[in-house]
Structures are given as structure tokens and as C-alpha cells.
């Protein structure tokens, strides 16, 4: 049965127009005679030489000698990648020189014994195939939020699928926290766990943006893999696609801002999935897209006399303009921190309630915006709440010389936040529910330019919160989350379904 599935999988991949390497074994390998061509269903005496502890499929599928992506095999004894299978290829040379005999084709998921060059078909190797390409059935996906079953890595470490650390290659913690947070947004996760959902998306020839979708799907499946060999995952391939497609705007060797990355990443995924302006045009918009109405009016210059100001206010340029705008996240402005110290000469850590920040969106509060020449007053009114609401708490302000960080603590409840209080009565009447629960909370620690990021995630299966900072994973009490310098939060709308 495994062999039949392997053939089906190969056919599907060979026909897949978005595959970066849709070339079969026979086309690329060194020519081999019919006599030495692959003999299937043969048991191999070298299976006990396989070392599962050194196998790591999280990195780019490149030959370690030629750096080619074409026809790459993993040596299952030492874990290194080599190209080819016929005589004079790097894999063949390695097998003879090192007496390493068992190889896996990273594209077709077939096992071979070299230098004898026959295919190995053995069900004991299925676990290796699953680690390379985890697959999820619909029933399995439905159970992810109801089970708290622990999995055991090959070294005996216990881990919870979905709550696994991500490697920090150099300075990519700002990407890691976003990827971890998005992996706990249920509809997004469920969509990307099933490759068939996006395998048929048509993209123009030569378009590499779809690579971003494929890599994100692979990372999502690895994060939720219940049969992983280790209790952490490396986002190397995912981040390589980010560097490529963002034209090096986001890199893993230089610290960046999670909100910039989140905004770019959601829009890039939306476009790669052929999303348009309609709410149901992609899973990104279905999950995060809300709508607001913005009322803008221009303020006359202060130095003018009263009569001139009155005349200006009557002109068309100074009339209130109303625009409807979609949003993927809401920006909350923190009040400026106090300039003075208290009587004991210690800095007061200011606090503010989340509800105070959200009054910006009630359609009545006016906020002033200054440009180089002109000043405007704006009112924001939410007209449509999304299933998942992202809040960005603006902590950093840039002036001419440096970046300042606002340390104000935001007090927020973890459950049952009613956003309906900020909606107009007629808008609220259109929503069945306006109550949200927190599912992810991203925190910034330290100085503006040198700080680090960590994320708090809710695992629905056991109802516990976890703090994750790269490879470090610990459980945390919900009360402790509210004491942190929250930066980005994701809230889930409470419905009858969840």
C-alpha cells in the first residue's frame, strides 16, 4: 500500500506547476543500465545503520558538496545531503567512501541503498517519511484543540504538539513570535495543515511568491507534528523564502519589528493565494479582515485671525471627509509616560486600561495627526469586527535622533473582552457576538534597538498558557501575562462553534 501511495504522490508532485523542482529521478540521475535500474520491494541489510537522532529536515534541501537543489538525497546514517544516485554522483561517492548505504530522496520520499542502487520498501521507515513531510487528516485536525496528549521525541523529551520551540538562527526572534502566534489561529492553522487546500492555486510562470505559502504550510505541519524526532523546529526554510520574497527587507541576521513583518507577511500570503479586495477571497482576509469608517477634517493654521479661520472652515477643503477602510490590525496609542519621578524619587511605571486605548475606535474620540505642513483631526469608527482581531500597541516613537520606548503597562483581561462597547448601536446589532478571548500575546523586553521578543500562547487542548522565547518553552499563569509590556495581541471571537 505504501508503494502505491508513493507512486500517486510522485505523479501529483510531477504535475504540480508550483513545485520548485518538478523533475523525476530518472531525468536527472547519471545514466544507469537497465540491469542496475531500481529493483523495488527488496529488504535491506543496512537498516540498522540508520541514525534517527542526526536526521534534521528543517534546512534547505541543498547538496552539501555541489549546493544544487536538484535530485538531493539525505544520508540516513550521518544526516548530510548529497546529489544524485548513479555512479560518479556525490551520494554514490559518499556511500562508497564512508560505507553509508541508506539514502532518502527528499523530493519523491523514496528510500535507496547505495552503491547497489535498489529501492528499499519497508514500513519501519514510515516514521522518517512522516518527519520529512507530516500529513494531517481532517479528523486529526478537528482533535487538535481538544486533546492535551504529549508526544515523545527520539531522545525521550516530552513535548506538546503546537507548543514547540523555534531556533533563533541569529536575530530572527521578531519573526519567530509572529510565526508562533499565527500557528495558534485555528482557521489559518487548519487551512495550512492540509496541503490540498492551496496546492491547486494557479500563479503566473516564474512567480516565486507561492514559495512563501508552501514554506509556511510546511512549518505549520512541523510545529503540530505529533511524531517529530526532536522537541523543536528550525524555521530556516521559511525564513529563506521571507528574505527572498521581501527582497531582503526582513532578514534573520538583523533584528526587525514584528508588526512590520506581520503586516507584510499577511499581505504577501493573501496575494500569493490570489486574494483580491473581497473578504472571502483568501483565508487571510476571512480570518483577520475588519472594516472601519474614518472621518477626517483639516485644522486651519493657528496663527490665522478668527475671521480668516471661520472663512476657511466654510470652504470645501476644510469640510469633513468620510472614507471606509479595511484593516488587518488596529493600532492602539499609549498615553505619554510621566516626565517626573514620585516623592520617593523612583520612576512610576504607568498603567493604562485596554478599554481606554480602545475608545479611539468609538467614532466619537478625535485624534490629531500632524504632517509637515498640515494638521488633521480624525475619528475612527469600527463597522465590522473580524473573527480574529489583532491589536498593535504602539510602544516605539521615532524622533530625529533616536527611538524611544513607552514602558506603560496595559491592563487587559485574558477572557471575555466585549468590543461591542465601542460600536455604534446599529453596527452592534449586525454582530451576533462581540466578545473576544486572548489567544496570543507578543511582548518586547529591553531597549528599543537591542531588545528581544517573546510570545504567550494558549493551548486550547489543555487550557494552559505557555511562554515561548525561541527554544525556551515554559508554562505561565494567565495573571502573569497581564504584567508584561504587551506589543501585539491576537483575540478570537467567541461563537457557538468555539
Short description:
This protein is of the alpha+beta class and 498 residues long. It has 16 helices and 25 strands.
Description of the molecule:
The chain is an alpha+beta fold. Helix content is 26%, strand content 25%. It has 16 helices and 25 strands. The strands form 7 sheets. Strands 12, 16, 20, 21, 22, 23, 24 and 25 form an 8-stranded mixed sheet that branches. A 5-stranded antiparallel sheet has the order 2-1-3-4-5, with helices on one face. Helix 9 packs antiparallel against helix 10. The radius of gyration is 27 Å and the shape is elongated. Residues 1-39 have low confidence and may be disordered.
Overall number of strands: 25
The coarse silhouette is elongated
Helix fraction?
25-40%
Mean residue pLDDT: 87
Please describe the structure with a list of short key phrases separated by commas or semicolons.
498 residues, five-stranded antiparallel β-sheet
What topology emerges from the helices and strands here?
Blueprint: H1 2-15, H2 25-28, E1 72-75, E2 81-83, H3 90-98, E3 102-105, E4 111-113, E5 118-120, H4 126-132, H5 138-143, E6 151-152, E7 158-159, E8 165-166, H6 173-182, H7 186-193, H8 196-199, H9 210-223, E9 232-233, H10 236-245, H11 258-272, H12 283-288, E10 290-299, H13 306-314, E11 321-327, E12 330-333, E13 351-353, H14 354-358, E14 362-370, E15 375-384, E16 388-394, E17 396-398, E18 403-405, E19 409-411, E20 417-418, H15 425-429, E21 435-445, E22 452-459, E23 464-469, E24 472-476, H16 478-481, E25 486-493
Parallel strand pairs: 8-9, 12-16, 13-19
Antiparallel strand pairs: 1-2, 1-3, 3-4, 4-5, 6-7, 10-11, 10-15, 14-15, 16-25, 17-18, 20-21, 21-22, 21-25, 22-23, 23-24
Helix pairs in contact: 9-10
